[in-house]
What we know:
Blueprint: H1 2-15, H2 21-32, E1 40-47, E2 52-59, H3 63-69, H4 73-80, H5 103-109, E3 116-124, E4 128-137, H6 145-162, H7 165-172, E5 180-185, E6 190-192, H8 207-217, E7 222-228, E8 238-245, E9 254-261, H9 271-281, H10 286-293, H11 297-310, H12 316-326
Antiparallel strand pairs: 1-2, 1-4, 3-4, 5-6, 5-9, 7-8, 8-9
Helix pairs in contact: 1-2, 1-6, 9-10, 9-11, 9-12, 10-11
Amino acid sequence: MADDAVAGLELAEVAGSSEPVAVRAEALLETLRRFVPFDGAWLALVDPQVPSYIAGASTELADSTLAFLAGPQPARDIELAGANRAAPPVSPSDLPFPAVQLPTWAECLLPAGYREGLGVALFAPGGRHVGFLALLSGDREPPSQQTRQTLGWLVPVLAHGIDPWRSLAAAARLVHGATAGVVLHEAGGIEVLPGLHAHALLTADSPAVAVAREALAAGHSYTAFLWPQGGRHAPRGHVRLTVLAATEDAPSFLVGMVLVSQPGDLRGLTPRELEVLGLLMNGSSNAAISRALLIAPRTVAAHLEHIMAKLSARSRTLAAVRAEREGLYVPRQEGTPPAS
Length: 340
């Protein structure tokens, strides 16, 4: 047990570092090897929306083996073996059927010389599936009970070490007063950020989230805008939505996040003026704004005059620049006529 404690302390130091996920994963395997024997290892991140596995690090695995593990079959076999659940490490000898019935073993691991090993799913606190670890051995004897216990003891530390959301959560803390937030998956799904709440605006089919995805697709690393609550005329006021692109070390299936906070100082801008600003930033002419909002051109001109006064801007262009910089606009939504 003393050795387990030492292993836990050393792995915890690696897991808690600020290095990118891939670097931490490699260091975790290197450290783990001193306490748990293996001939080859595969430490992968999971995309729970698909699901599929993306290699975070590996040790002593041939390129052909890694290519197979990067395909869809391993995820299916892991699920079939029940190894995608929160459970103790499992070996091929633990399965209720011969391991050769799994294509990953029959077509990849056995031909590569691996006969035994241990696999375990990695979960962050709260039950979020973050990855999978496979330790492989050329021995025919199943792993010892001591090896199983040591690895089981270290699983939470390994999960913490490869959790790709840690850097996202750190970035989210930079948004003052954020009370709700979600991570956006490339495949279209969303997940609530740890430590924050869900919000009615932050759903996969929300128009607000669609706007956020458009901003990320356009290459913007930071975008902030307002969104009306209770309907277009904001009977319950506005909230501020902040869109942040995923950090550099986040896996490719995470594209960014959206955070909800209080609107802040609106500089006296009315709900209608915030809509006008959104269309103005889209490049819309006065005539296009008039058609989009079903108001007279002279009313648009009056709104723009009031907007420029409130933003201390001498031109409509400068007003649009200041509105974008301060996030003081309601963006054009799907179905609104384009700029013209």
